[in-house]
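User: I'm preparing a small set of examples for a lab meeting where we compare how different chains pack in three dimensions. I only have the primary sequence for this one, and I'd like the structure in token form so I can line it up with the others. Please keep the answer compact; I'll paste it straight into my notes.
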Amino acid sequence: MTDTTAMFWPMIAHAFLVFILYYLLSMRRGAAVSSGSVDVRQFKENLSEPAESLLVHNNLKNQFELPMLFHAGVLAIFICNADNIITIALAWIFVISRYAHSYVHITSNRLLLRRPLFMLGFMATVLMWGWLAIWLATS
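Assistant: Understood. Below is the structure token output for the 139-residue chain.
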């Protein structure tokens, strides 16, 4: 439907969120080691994450669950030429919800805030896949 690469920008924005989280995880782990609360050898097998970095570690793992369906959906929509202003908007809604979800997760970790943000991104992804199914069924 569109001949642009606009669908890729939300993917790039999500990748930058992951890069930010990896950096933050490294900083928090380093601070835990520097403060003496954790021995650096603990990270050799990483059987338990220190409290100082646990929330970031958990959030980083979240970026490889639902977001994998998002990335696959974006690529499929683009390849099938099914992208349009709505799918691009849904992709941005997903990414913005992931940034907000990550912020809440690594700061206050309030489930009453986290869950609606997760559900917003989840619904955006479901709608993208739904649109792709409709597009394929009617093309």
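A couple of notes for your slides: The two ends are 12 Å apart (CA to CA). DSSP finds five helices and no strands in the chain.

User: Perfect, thanks.
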